[in-house]
User: Fold this.
Amino acid sequence: MNAKLLKEKMLRGETVYGTMIQHATNPALVDFLPPGALDFVIFTAEHNALDIADFLPLRYALAAKGIVSLARTHSRDPDDVSKVCDSYDGVVVPYVEDVAHAKRLAAAAVYRPLKGAALERVLKDDKWPNARTKQYCFEERCANTLFIPMIESVEAVDNLEEICSIPGVNAVFVGPNDLTTSMGIPNEYDHPDFVAMMKRIIEIADRKHVPAGSWFGTVEQQQRTMKQGGRFVVYSNDSSMMKDAIQLAFGQMRKA
Assistant:
């Protein structure tokens, strides 16, 4: 599966499954991935000393297995977004909440190589140089690139319908730590207000034919969100899953 096929799968209303890679960089990891388990991964250098470039060997190994590789940027700068999209199958941008800024991020990801005054006319009035240029950007140059903004604040949710209406937004991804903090209920992922907020996000995005989902570290929380209609599933991360497996196995043995 390449990014274009993943886009098509989401547009058909199918659910896609992924995880976050936060510490693993060895490409040999792909030999231990069960076939058919993952549609995509999101590489993130947040909360560690790595850089996005450190994951490139693993990114190419995953491509050989048909798994799409997205990268979460450090910043929300359009230039950083373009740089990531030149090397990965797509970009996940943190804390997107302002509509005008979201348009610039989308442009950096999937309107490439349009720049300067021509880009400003597109952003302001949706006036492309001509239909051929628009077709080239979306269907040729950036056909295999995904743009996924992270929804991590109450303001972002309030602006979500407009964000999902931006051409080039392929999915929206909730960061539950930041969103619950913005809501005044930090890390309370089972709080009724957060559960209701997830339902609101999914319903708004679905009306625009944009899949939505959230990161969760438990299967139960993911399943709850999937029952609400969440189709962009991001479960746990490499280090957390290793910790869970070790804790489960050795916990059982020490009780024997």
Summary: The longest strand covers residues 16-21. The mean pLDDT is 96.
